């Protein structure tokens, strides 16, 4: 965080008003507004934005003194689900379902609610003044979001590997071949994952295997349960070092993802451990 300054200091350095600078940053998609606080978005992080902690005033955002504000790549006009769908040749319902699967949107009785991670991706919570229903608008940069584009490609039946430049995924797959076939037809990499997959299937819990986390880094979660937005990480003693475990757990924590951890020593006690853990996220097991 060396040589990074607050938004107020940056405004002073650039001889502009703080409010005007925040508005510019919001238009560019670097920050978002949640009630009375500013949130650093994924785009803001790309350009060097970070959170800092003040002992008296709490958390605030800092920037490089030479911050580049790329306003040209954004029109500043938010997109509705219908307009976003037009970019991908999908209807609004399918777009909302994909955004929900990514954990950026959640269905509520009176509409759609933007989640905390959705705010970071550029979502704006809105309320229809006539009906009182809630809905979401999205910063137009989301149309270029790598994770959304990957989800659209996967939903449309295209191979996700063609759209990633990260070689670590293919290297990982070559090193740990998915050769164990589960009851629901998944192919997994270890007997421990096979037992988890079969347990979820037999308990009627919809799940995805090897799901990419909805973040910029190329990180696969062992299992993803869309009904509770829960990720399951299996710690196989042969495939994870202590440092790898710490790094992965830190990423889950930093993005506030719901996480259930299963140690290899507990793999034969799933009936005793998983139901209670799943219940915490509103998922019932038979």
TrEMBL record:
This is Glycerol kinase. Keywords: Kinase, Transferase. GO terms for molecular function: kinase activity. It comes from the Bacteria. The keyword Transferase applies.
């Amino acid at each position: 965080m060396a040589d990074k300054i607050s938004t107020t200091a940056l405004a002073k350095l650039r001889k502009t008003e703080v409010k005007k600078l925040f508005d510019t940053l919001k238009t560019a998609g670097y920050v978002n507004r949640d009630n009375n606080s500013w949130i650093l978005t994924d785009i803001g992080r790309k350009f060097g934005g970070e959170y800092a902690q003040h002992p008296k005033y709490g958390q605030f955002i800092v920037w490089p003194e030479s911050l580049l504000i790329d306003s040209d790549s954004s029109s500043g006009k938010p997109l509705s689900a219908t307009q976003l769908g037009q970019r991908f040749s999908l209807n609004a319902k399918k777009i909302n379902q994909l955004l929900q699967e990514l954990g950026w949107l959640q269905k509520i009785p009176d509409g759609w609610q933007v989640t905390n991670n959705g705010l970071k991706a550029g979502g704006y919570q809105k309320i229809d003044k006539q009906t009182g229903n809630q809905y979401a608008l999205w910063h137009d940069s989301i149309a270029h979001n790598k994770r959304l584009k990957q989800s659209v490609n996967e939903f449309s039946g295209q191979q996700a590997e063609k759209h990633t430049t990260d070689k670590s995924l293919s290297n990982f797959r070559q090193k740990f071949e998915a050769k164990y076939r589960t009851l629901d037809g998944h192919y997994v990499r270890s007997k421990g994952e096979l037992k988890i997959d079969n347990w979820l299937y037999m308990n009627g819990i919809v799940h995805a295997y090897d799901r990419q986390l909805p973040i910029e880094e190329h990180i696969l979660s062992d299992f993803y349960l869309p009904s509770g937005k829960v990720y399951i990480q299996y710690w196989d003693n042969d495939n994870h070092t202590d440092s790898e475990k710490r790094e992965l757990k830190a990423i889950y924590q930093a993005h506030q993802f719901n996480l259930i951890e299963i140690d290899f020593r507990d793999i034969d006690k799933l009936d005793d451990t998983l139901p209670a853990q799943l219940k915490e996220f509103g998922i019932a097991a038979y």
